[in-house]
Amino acid sequence: MLASVLALGAMTAGHAAMAEERLLETGSSLLYPLFNLWVPVYGKTHPGVQITTESTGSGTGISEAASGIAQIGASDAY
Questions:
Q1: Binning pLDDT at 50, 70 and 90, where does residue 11 land?
Q2: What is the Cα–Cα distance from 55 to 30, expressed in whole angstroms?
Q3: How far apart are CA 31 and CA 74, in angstroms?
Q4: Which among 6, 21, 46, 74 could disulfide-bond with 31, CB atoms 3.0 to 4.6 Å apart, if both were Cys?
């Protein structure tokens, strides 16, 4: 879980000044409710970043991040 948070911060650092950055997070249904709490809070300090979350399961999150479909793949399988 910490890795997901760190990855989110690293991927969007410095992008707040840009017009808009769109990120897709897919994966873990366990972490999905947490992402839905984190995303609005993150958006308050990074208004140029739009994050969409999808509860697709850990395996899908990993494969979609690896293939480039999603920028964030969440998994609780490790």
A1: low
A2: 8
A3: 7
A4: 74
